Amino acid sequence: TMKNPVPQAASLLLEKLLLLVHVRPLPAGSDGEPPPQPAPGYYDTSCFKRGDLLEVPRTLFIHFGIYLGENRVAHLMPDIMPALTGDRRQIQQVVTNKRLLLGVITKIASIRVDTVEDFAYGGSILVNHMDRLFEDQVLSSEEAARRAEKLVGATAYSLLWNNCEHFVTYCRYGAPVSFQTDKFCETLKMIIRDQRSVLASVLVGLVSIVCLGLAPSTTLPTIFIPFFLWMAG
Protein backbone atom coordinates (compact mmCIF):
# COMPACT_ATOMS: atom_id res chain seq x y z
CA THR A 1 0.00 0.00 0.00
CA MET A 2 1.10 3.52 -0.74
CA LYS A 3 1.85 5.81 2.16
CA ASN A 4 -0.18 9.01 2.47
CA PRO A 5 2.14 11.74 1.10
CA VAL A 6 0.43 14.53 3.05
CA PRO A 7 1.61 13.57 6.57
CA GLN A 8 5.08 13.13 5.08
CA ALA A 9 4.84 16.59 3.57
CA ALA A 10 3.65 17.96 6.91
CA SER A 11 6.63 16.44 8.69
CA LEU A 12 8.99 17.92 6.12
CA LEU A 13 7.23 21.27 6.42
CA LEU A 14 7.64 21.42 10.18
CA GLU A 15 11.30 20.48 9.88
CA LYS A 16 11.79 23.19 7.30
CA LEU A 17 9.94 25.72 9.47
CA LEU A 18 12.49 25.25 12.24
CA LEU A 19 15.41 25.39 9.84
CA LEU A 20 14.11 28.53 8.16
CA VAL A 21 14.64 30.41 11.40
CA HIS A 22 18.25 29.16 11.32
CA VAL A 23 18.11 26.69 14.20
CA ARG A 24 21.52 25.06 14.15
CA PRO A 25 21.84 21.70 15.94
CA LEU A 26 24.64 21.61 18.49
CA PRO A 27 26.86 18.64 19.32
CA ALA A 28 25.63 16.23 21.98
CA GLY A 29 26.48 17.46 25.45
CA SER A 30 26.84 21.07 24.33
CA ASP A 31 26.05 23.67 26.97
CA GLY A 32 24.33 25.93 24.46
CA GLU A 33 27.42 27.48 22.97
CA PRO A 34 28.13 27.04 19.25
CA PRO A 35 30.82 24.58 18.16
CA PRO A 36 34.26 25.92 17.17
CA GLN A 37 34.29 27.83 13.90
CA PRO A 38 36.74 27.37 11.03
CA ALA A 39 39.96 29.29 11.54
CA PRO A 40 40.32 32.68 9.80
CA GLY A 41 41.42 32.14 6.23
CA TYR A 42 39.39 28.94 5.84
CA TYR A 43 37.47 30.67 3.05
CA ASP A 44 39.17 32.35 0.12
CA THR A 45 37.67 35.83 0.15
CA SER A 46 39.83 37.13 -2.70
CA CYS A 47 37.02 36.35 -5.16
CA PHE A 48 34.44 38.29 -3.13
CA LYS A 49 33.69 41.91 -3.95
CA ARG A 50 32.09 44.50 -1.73
CA GLY A 51 28.32 44.34 -2.25
CA ASP A 52 28.26 40.68 -3.32
CA LEU A 53 25.26 38.62 -2.21
CA LEU A 54 26.47 35.48 -0.43
CA GLU A 55 24.38 32.33 -0.03
CA VAL A 56 25.12 29.39 2.24
CA PRO A 57 22.94 26.39 1.25
CA ARG A 58 21.86 24.16 4.12
CA THR A 59 19.93 20.90 4.01
CA LEU A 60 16.50 22.54 3.73
CA PHE A 61 17.14 26.27 3.67
CA ILE A 62 19.58 28.94 2.52
CA HIS A 63 21.15 31.65 4.68
CA PHE A 64 21.98 34.98 3.05
CA GLY A 65 24.32 37.91 3.64
CA ILE A 66 25.92 40.92 1.94
CA TYR A 67 29.72 41.01 1.72
CA LEU A 68 31.14 44.31 2.98
CA GLY A 69 34.80 43.68 2.23
CA GLU A 70 37.72 42.83 4.54
CA ASN A 71 36.22 39.45 5.53
CA ARG A 72 33.00 41.04 6.84
CA VAL A 73 29.44 39.96 6.07
CA ALA A 74 26.20 41.74 7.07
CA HIS A 75 23.33 39.33 7.70
CA LEU A 76 20.03 39.21 9.59
CA MET A 77 19.52 36.73 12.42
CA PRO A 78 16.82 36.35 15.10
CA ASP A 79 18.43 37.36 18.41
CA ILE A 80 17.01 38.32 21.81
CA MET A 81 20.23 39.98 23.02
CA PRO A 82 19.60 43.49 21.56
CA ALA A 83 16.46 43.68 23.71
CA LEU A 84 18.37 42.75 26.87
CA THR A 85 21.50 44.87 26.68
CA GLY A 86 23.16 47.72 24.84
CA ASP A 87 26.61 46.21 25.34
CA ARG A 88 27.95 45.76 21.83
CA ARG A 89 30.53 43.22 22.97
CA GLN A 90 27.82 40.87 24.24
CA ILE A 91 25.62 41.42 21.20
CA GLN A 92 28.50 40.76 18.81
CA GLN A 93 29.28 37.35 20.30
CA VAL A 94 28.28 34.42 18.06
CA VAL A 95 24.53 33.83 18.44
CA THR A 96 23.68 30.69 20.43
CA ASN A 97 20.59 28.58 19.81
CA LYS A 98 18.98 29.91 23.01
CA ARG A 99 19.43 33.51 21.88
CA LEU A 100 18.14 32.65 18.43
CA LEU A 101 15.00 30.84 19.60
CA LEU A 102 14.11 33.59 22.06
CA GLY A 103 14.53 36.06 19.22
CA VAL A 104 12.10 34.08 17.07
CA ILE A 105 9.50 33.91 19.85
CA THR A 106 9.76 37.62 20.68
CA LYS A 107 10.12 38.62 16.99
CA ILE A 108 13.42 40.42 17.58
CA ALA A 109 16.45 40.20 15.31
CA SER A 110 19.67 41.99 14.57
CA ILE A 111 21.40 42.82 11.33
CA ARG A 112 24.95 42.11 12.37
CA VAL A 113 28.40 42.05 10.85
CA ASP A 114 30.41 38.85 11.25
CA THR A 115 33.44 37.27 9.69
CA VAL A 116 32.88 35.07 6.65
CA GLU A 117 33.73 32.06 8.84
CA ASP A 118 31.04 32.86 11.42
CA PHE A 119 28.50 33.69 8.72
CA ALA A 120 29.05 30.53 6.66
CA TYR A 121 29.25 28.21 9.66
CA GLY A 122 31.35 25.72 7.74
CA GLY A 123 29.05 25.60 4.69
CA SER A 124 29.87 26.26 1.06
CA ILE A 125 29.28 29.77 -0.30
CA LEU A 126 27.58 30.82 -3.54
CA VAL A 127 28.19 34.35 -4.87
CA ASN A 128 25.47 36.44 -6.57
CA HIS A 129 23.53 33.30 -7.42
CA MET A 130 20.22 35.19 -7.27
CA ASP A 131 21.21 37.81 -9.86
CA ARG A 132 19.77 35.68 -12.64
CA LEU A 133 16.31 35.99 -11.09
CA PHE A 134 16.33 39.78 -11.06
CA GLU A 135 18.00 40.59 -14.40
CA ASP A 136 18.13 44.40 -14.75
CA GLN A 137 17.18 45.09 -11.12
CA VAL A 138 20.69 44.57 -9.74
CA LEU A 139 21.90 47.71 -7.97
CA SER A 140 25.53 48.80 -7.97
CA SER A 141 27.78 46.87 -5.62
CA GLU A 142 28.54 49.98 -3.59
CA GLU A 143 24.84 50.81 -3.22
CA ALA A 144 24.13 47.27 -1.99
CA ALA A 145 26.91 47.46 0.59
CA ARG A 146 25.84 50.90 1.79
CA ARG A 147 22.24 49.75 2.22
CA ALA A 148 23.42 46.82 4.30
CA GLU A 149 25.67 48.99 6.47
CA LYS A 150 22.88 51.51 7.02
CA LEU A 151 20.55 48.80 8.34
CA VAL A 152 23.00 47.22 10.81
CA GLY A 153 21.45 47.02 14.27
CA ALA A 154 18.34 45.72 16.00
CA THR A 155 15.26 45.10 13.86
CA ALA A 156 11.92 43.30 13.97
CA TYR A 157 11.89 39.66 12.88
CA SER A 158 9.29 37.74 10.93
CA LEU A 159 9.78 34.49 9.09
CA LEU A 160 7.18 35.59 6.54
CA TRP A 161 7.90 39.30 6.20
CA ASN A 162 11.41 40.13 7.45
CA ASN A 163 14.00 37.39 7.31
CA CYS A 164 17.58 37.16 6.03
CA GLU A 165 16.44 36.77 2.41
CA HIS A 166 14.23 39.89 2.57
CA PHE A 167 17.25 41.79 3.88
CA VAL A 168 19.66 40.85 1.09
CA THR A 169 17.16 41.21 -1.76
CA TYR A 170 16.34 44.72 -0.55
CA CYS A 171 20.03 45.61 -0.39
CA ARG A 172 21.04 44.21 -3.78
CA TYR A 173 17.83 44.44 -5.82
CA GLY A 174 15.81 47.16 -4.12
CA ALA A 175 12.85 44.88 -3.35
CA PRO A 176 12.51 42.76 -0.18
CA VAL A 177 11.31 39.32 -1.28
CA SER A 178 11.79 35.76 -0.05
CA PHE A 179 11.41 32.85 -2.44
CA GLN A 180 11.94 30.38 0.41
CA THR A 181 8.99 31.86 2.28
CA ASP A 182 6.80 31.74 -0.84
CA LYS A 183 7.58 28.06 -1.31
CA PHE A 184 6.92 27.36 2.37
CA CYS A 185 3.52 29.08 2.19
CA GLU A 186 2.52 27.09 -0.90
CA THR A 187 3.34 23.85 0.91
CA LEU A 188 1.35 25.03 3.92
CA LYS A 189 -1.68 25.78 1.74
CA MET A 190 -1.45 22.35 0.16
CA ILE A 191 -1.51 20.66 3.55
CA ILE A 192 -4.39 22.76 4.87
CA ARG A 193 -6.52 22.13 1.75
CA ASP A 194 -6.26 18.36 2.10
CA GLN A 195 -8.97 16.94 4.38
CA ARG A 196 -6.71 14.05 5.34
CA SER A 197 -4.23 16.39 7.02
CA VAL A 198 -6.34 17.49 10.00
CA LEU A 199 -3.79 16.70 12.66
CA ALA A 200 -0.96 18.07 10.55
CA SER A 201 -2.87 21.33 10.08
CA VAL A 202 -3.48 21.63 13.81
CA LEU A 203 0.21 21.09 14.52
CA VAL A 204 1.31 23.52 11.81
CA GLY A 205 -1.10 26.14 13.13
CA LEU A 206 0.19 25.82 16.68
CA VAL A 207 3.80 26.01 15.55
CA SER A 208 2.90 29.04 13.43
CA ILE A 209 1.59 30.91 16.46
CA VAL A 210 4.94 30.50 18.20
CA CYS A 211 7.45 30.61 15.36
CA LEU A 212 5.82 32.86 12.79
CA GLY A 213 4.58 35.44 15.22
CA LEU A 214 1.07 35.27 13.77
CA ALA A 215 -1.82 36.45 15.91
CA PRO A 216 -4.03 33.58 17.15
CA SER A 217 -6.99 35.30 15.49
CA THR A 218 -5.43 34.59 12.09
CA THR A 219 -3.79 31.27 12.89
CA LEU A 220 -6.61 29.49 14.72
CA PRO A 221 -8.79 29.31 11.58
CA THR A 222 -6.05 27.28 9.91
CA ILE A 223 -6.38 24.82 12.78
CA PHE A 224 -10.16 24.46 12.96
CA ILE A 225 -11.29 24.88 9.34
CA PRO A 226 -9.65 21.61 8.14
CA PHE A 227 -11.15 19.85 11.17
CA PHE A 228 -14.68 20.94 10.32
CA LEU A 229 -14.13 20.06 6.65
CA TRP A 230 -13.03 16.58 7.71
CA MET A 231 -16.06 16.17 9.99
CA ALA A 232 -18.37 17.28 7.17
CA GLY A 233 -16.78 14.77 4.80
Automatic annotation (TrEMBL):
<dbReference type="GO" id="GO:0005791">
    <property type="term" value="C:rough endoplasmic reticulum"/>
</dbReference>
<dbReference type="GO" id="GO:0047173">
    <property type="term" value="F:phosphatidylcholine-retinol O-acyltransferase activity"/>
</dbReference>
<keyword id="KW-0716">Sensory transduction</keyword>
<dbReference type="GO" id="GO:0042572">
    <property type="term" value="P:retinol metabolic process"/>
</dbReference>
<comment type="pathway">
    <text>Cofactor metabolism; retinol metabolism.</text>
</comment>
<keyword id="KW-0967">Endosome</keyword>
<feature type="domain" description="LRAT">
    <location>
        <begin position="53"/>
        <end position="180"/>
    </location>
</feature>
<keyword id="KW-0472">Membrane</keyword>
<dbReference type="GO" id="GO:0006776">
    <property type="term" value="P:vitamin A metabolic process"/>
</dbReference>
<feature type="transmembrane region" description="Helical">
    <location>
        <begin position="198"/>
        <end position="231"/>
    </location>
</feature>
<comment type="similarity">
    <text>Belongs to the H-rev107 family.</text>
</comment>
<keyword id="KW-0963">Cytoplasm</keyword>
<keyword id="KW-0256">Endoplasmic reticulum</keyword>
<keyword id="KW-0443">Lipid metabolism</keyword>
<keyword id="KW-0844">Vision</keyword>
<dbReference type="Pfam" id="PF04970">
    <property type="entry name" value="LRAT"/>
</dbReference>
<feature type="active site" description="Acyl-thioester intermediate">
    <location>
        <position position="164"/>
    </location>
</feature>
<dbReference type="GO" id="GO:0005789">
    <property type="term" value="C:endoplasmic reticulum membrane"/>
</dbReference>
<feature type="signal peptide">
    <location>
        <begin position="1"/>
        <end position="32"/>
    </location>
</feature>
<dbReference type="GO" id="GO:0048471">
    <property type="term" value="C:perinuclear region of cytoplasm"/>
</dbReference>
<keyword id="KW-0732">Signal</keyword>
<dbReference type="InterPro" id="IPR042288">
    <property type="entry name" value="LRAT"/>
</dbReference>
<keyword id="KW-0012">Acyltransferase</keyword>
<dbReference type="GO" id="GO:0005770">
    <property type="term" value="C:late endosome"/>
</dbReference>
<keyword id="KW-1133">Transmembrane helix</keyword>
<keyword id="KW-0808">Transferase</keyword>
<keyword id="KW-0812">Transmembrane</keyword>
<dbReference type="InterPro" id="IPR007053">
    <property type="entry name" value="LRAT_dom"/>
</dbReference>
<protein>
    <recommendedName>
        <fullName>Lecithin retinol acyltransferase</fullName>
        <ecNumber>2.3.1.135</ecNumber>
    </recommendedName>
</protein>
<dbReference type="GO" id="GO:0007601">
    <property type="term" value="P:visual perception"/>
</dbReference>
<comment type="function">
    <text>Transfers the acyl group from the sn-1 position of phosphatidylcholine to all-trans retinol, producing all-trans retinyl esters. Retinyl esters are storage forms of vitamin A. LRAT plays a critical role in vision. It provides the all-trans retinyl ester substrates for the isomerohydrolase which processes the esters into 11-cis-retinol in the retinal pigment epithelium; due to a membrane-associated alcohol dehydrogenase, 11 cis-retinol is oxidized and converted into 11-cis-retinaldehyde which is the chromophore for rhodopsin and the cone photopigments.</text>
</comment>
